[in-house]
Specification:
The protein is an alpha+beta fold. The chain contains ten helices and 47 strands. Among the domains are: 147 residues, no CATH class; 117 residues, PAS domain (Beta-Lactamase); 79 residues, Helix Hairpins (Orthogonal Bundle); 169 residues, Histidine kinase-like ATPase, C-terminal domain (Heat Shock Protein 90, 2-Layer Sandwich), CATH 3.30.565.
């Protein structure tokens, strides 16, 4: 990645750019005093809310029933996807329009002459980098999923469900809602998770998975209760996603799969739609679930909001933290809650829970184990919550919508702005480092600093000194920094487009600024908005340990010279990727950016394996042909001797027969070695202590080792755990110990030494990390120095009658466990084989995706 460093260091500013920068700076500071003087007085501000730090800069109407911000071209700027209800016109029922700007630059429009769009369109990107827009449509008592691409072209309309008008209101009041995507059937394509709902018409309710490729349902889980929300996450830590759902009561007698709509439920399904866990309540009418990481250990935890609504009774509820997937209570926090959200407010890697108490008009921020961090009484009964960085300052804002008003707070619950409108909350990205537009119901708002809030008493002398220092400083700064940061980003984007890899660019604070390619195999969420996301929240569990620790170490290097890091990972579909993390430094050797690349090296690895197989196959054919030829000649001689001697010369027959047996035995050994090599499977990993493994190896070895060999073991105390395949470990040790035995010809000293060490070379596969080191030493004949480099090649053997596959299999086993193996030897002295295996840790980065 030297090219990035060259671009960043070569500042080719021409005079025109420098003069322009200086002119702009001087002009700014000429106008600034006049602006301050005109806008800073001691009188009351004409703004409606002079006591708030932010007020409205501009406002425009959305004017649609459903609205969904969608980044169609992935430039970090959202486009506007509207769904309008036109049934009052009489000619159309609904239409969907995608705009570049609000109500301007129409990209496409889709009409729905009949039927009703029942919820907000759902958008996602396929693994082939294609945008899909999913629109739920109800028509003639049936629910359909309409699929469109980024140009508005219809890709199909599929019937998902249907119902019957049971409450005699003239229509079936059900529908569907696409909520998430996941590869449920392991075909390498994303499938859609759809919730089915009906209000007073009983059925259908529940959830189903739909395959867009095969255009059919994969599975369906009917339910009696009304699904409130559904989340996909691996809460069992088994490498497979689960579906976590909450539900609400309608109480009209619907039942299915052991659930009814007279109770609220928390349900957990596996990715095949099978019920894993269930928790039900009679005393609560609604359950909302959230998945979070409140303790920063990289594992998902489960929280729920339970509430009860009845006009004749006092509202009650609680927040519950669960041990999953058994759904047992870990901690509870009681109150009258209307909304719940989870976000890492202070950027420490731990999620906080933000809840709204409607009855007491309070906002609570809860930390680990639901510990109360802070609370705030507000002037409105809170309803909906949204946590976003609205003003692009790197800190989250808490937006609360209640009765006719919406209030914006900072992460310390200090009020920032107030708007006279309430409803559904959403935001629109305007680009990197630009404020977001806040959507409330059908209105869009952009906030700006309230000048009346920051009143300044002018002191012309002091102001003149400050302005003079600022002008001088900024002129000097402008001369040395002529090219703005976004110019570098444009150059980086152009260069990344020419690289055949998936990549993400982070700034020096660890926030994503650019991305390229399909990141679904490496991020926590399929629909994650990368620009602006902090690195600790981007990468999935399988790669988080390596990537996050590597980035953290780079961020800590400061002004030192950081180095690149890399690691290979194996995806579930068999593809191999190399993860490279490259620091990009400035001319002063300070860290400016971090580039994380994901390079598909499957073809390269397959080519290396094909060359190895070709060499092995050629040697195998040669070695099998020669013994067979000997067998043939020997049998001919045996036949001639039998005919001439008439079974009198028994010794001759024995000689020929023994020759046949020896060659056949050699052929058998070659075939056995070949079968072991070709049938070698990926390791079936499990946790085992190194001390226990050594004891097993000692017991097994002493059963077959000749008594004339003095076998000793020296191992450190308190050896750590390993994450290995025990059967492959026994095969590894047998191959190495058997080679040592044969080199000593059944007599000598054999020594096994077990220690721990640290990998400190960051260019290694796993970078820094603790390992267990095994050294097997013998007093055999030794190996010529010029032959050591050939030992791991298939069918290379220095021993007569050897297959040449033992060390090849040993090397493959060690590398499959992400270890290293080496040999040192001296003729007439002996040989030492050394291999290292990484120590098991809780969030093991060696787990396969």
């Amino acid at each position: 990645m030297q090219i990035f460093k060259i671009i960043f260091e070569k500042r080719q500013e021409d005079k025109t750019i420098i003069i322009m920068k200086i002119s702009q700076t001087i002009l700014f500071f000429i106008l600034f005093p006049a602006f301050v003087f005109c806008n800073t007085t001691e009188q009351n501000s004409p703004d409606k809310y002079p006591d708030m730090p932010y007020v409205l800069e501009k406002q425009f109407g959305i004017g649609s029933k459903y609205f969904s911000p969608t980044d169609v071209d992935r430039d970090g700027i959202d486009e506007y996807l509207y769904v309008n209800d036109l049934r009052q016109r009489g000619d159309l029922a609904f239409n969907m329009t995608l705009y570049r700007e609000p109500n301007e630059f129409n990209i496409f429009q889709v009409n729905f002459p009949k039927g009703e769009v029942t919820s907000t369109p759902f958008t996602f990107w396929t693994k082939n980098e294609e945008l899909r827009i999913l629109v739920p449509l109800s028509l003639n008592n049936k629910a359909y999923l309409c699929v469109y691409n980024a140009k508005g072209d219809s890709l199909g309309r599929y019937e998902i469900s249907g119902g019957i008008d049971r409450n005699d209101n003239g229509i079936w009041d059900g529908g569907i809602n696409p909520v998430a995507v996941e590869d449920f059937n392991d075909d390498g394509m994303l499938d859609v998770l759809i919730t089915l709902h009906a209000y007073h018409d009983l059925h259908p309710r529940g959830v189903c998975a739909f395959d867009l490729k095969d255009k059919q349902k994969i599975w369906e889980f009917p339910g009696g209760a009304y699904i409130t929300n559904a989340v996909i996450a691996d809460i069992t830590e088994n490498g497979e996603p689960e579906i976590i759902m909450g539900s609400a009561t309608v109480d009209n007698g619907s039942t299915a799969n052991g659930t009814n709509d007279g109770q609220s439920y928390l349900l957990i399904l596996d990715k095949n739609g099978k019920l894993i866990s269930k928790k039900d309540w009679d005393e609560f009418t609604s359950c909302i679930v959230k998945v979070l990481d409140y303790d920063g250990d990289g594992k998902f935890e489960l929280a729920s909001k339970l509430s009860y609504n009845n006009l004749d009774e006092i509202e009650k509820g609680k927040i519950t933290l669960w041990d999953s997937p058994e759904i047992t209570v870990k901690k509870e926090f009681f109150g009258h809650f209307s909304s719940i959200e989870a976000k890492d407010l202070n950027k420490d890697g731990k999620d906080e829970i933000i809840v709204a108490n409607r009855l007491e008009k309070r906002i609570f921020i809860l930390g680990e184990n639901l510990t109360l961090i802070m609370e705030k009484e507000i002037p409105i009964p809170p309803g909906k919550l949204l946590i976003e960085d609205l003003n692009a300052d790197g800190a989250y804002e808490i937006i609360v919508s209640g009765r006719y008003k919406t209030i914006v707070f900072n992460d310390k619950l200090k009020p920032l702005a107030q708007i006279d409108l309430a409803g559904k909350l959403e935001t629109i990205n305007q680009g990197y480092k630009k404020p977001k537009i806040l959507i409330i119901a059908n209105g869009a708002f952009l906030l700006k600093p309230n000048t009346a809030y920051y009143k300044i008493r002018l002191n012309w002398f002091l102001l003149g000194m400050i302005l003079g220092v600022l002008i001088f400083s900024l002129i000097v700064f402008g001369c040395f920094r002529a090219l703005p940061k976004n110019r570098y980003l444009r150059l980086f984007k152009e260069i990344l487009n020419n690289f055949d890899c998936t990549a993400i660019l982070l700034d020096k604070k660890g926030k994503a600024v650019l991305s390229k390619g399909n990141m679904n195999d490496f991020v926590t969420e399929k629909r994650l908005r990368l620009p602006g996301s902090f690195y600790t929240k981007i990468f999935n569990r399988e790669n988080r340990q390596f990537i996050n620790s590597s980035i953290a170490s780079l961020l800590k290097t400061g002004d030192f010279k950081p180095i690149s890091k890399s690691k290979e990972v194996l995806l579930k579909d068999g593809r191999r990727f190399q993860i490279d993390i490259h620091p990009i430094t400035s001319k002063t050797a300070k860290l400016a950016f971090i580039l994380v690349c994901f390079q598909d090296i499957s073809v390269k690895k397959e080519g290396e394996r094909a060359i190895e197989w070709a060499s092995m196959s050629q040697k195998l054919a040669h070695d099998i042909r020669n013994p067979l030829h000997t067998v043939f000649l020997t049998l001919q001689r045996l036949q001639m001797a039998y005919q001439q001697d008439k079974v009198k010369n028994i010794k001759t027959y024995d000689q020929y027969t023994n020759s046949v047996i020896e060659d056949v035995e050699r052929l058998r050994k070659i075939a056995d070695g070949f079968m072991k090599f070709t049938k070698q499977k990926p390791p079936d990993l499990e946790i085992i202590s190194a001390e226990k493994l050594v004891k097993i190896i000692e017991e097994k070895t002493r059963e077959w080792l000749p008594k004339n060999i003095n076998f000793k073991i020296e191992a450190e105390k308190d050896l750590p755990d390993l994450y290995v395949d025990p059967d492959q470990m026994q095969q590894l040790f047998f191959n190495l110990l058997d080679n040592a035995n044969k080199s000593m010809k059944g007599k000598g000293r054999l020594f096994l030494r077990v220690t721990t060490a640290e990998w400190i070379n960051a260019n290694e596969v796993n970078g820094s990390g603790r390992v267990v080191v095994f050294e097997i030493s013998d007093t055999g004949c030794g190996i010529p120095e010029d032959k050591i480099s050939e030992l791991f090649k298939p069918y290379f053997s220095l021993r007569e009658g050897g297959t040449g596959l033992g060390l090849t299999i040993a090397r493959n086993i060690v590398e499959d466990h992400e270890g290293k193996i080496s040999i040192r030897s001296k003729e007439g002295v002996g040989t030492t084989v050394k291999f290292e295996l990484p120590v098991y840790h809780l969030d093991c980065s060696r787990s396969k995706i």
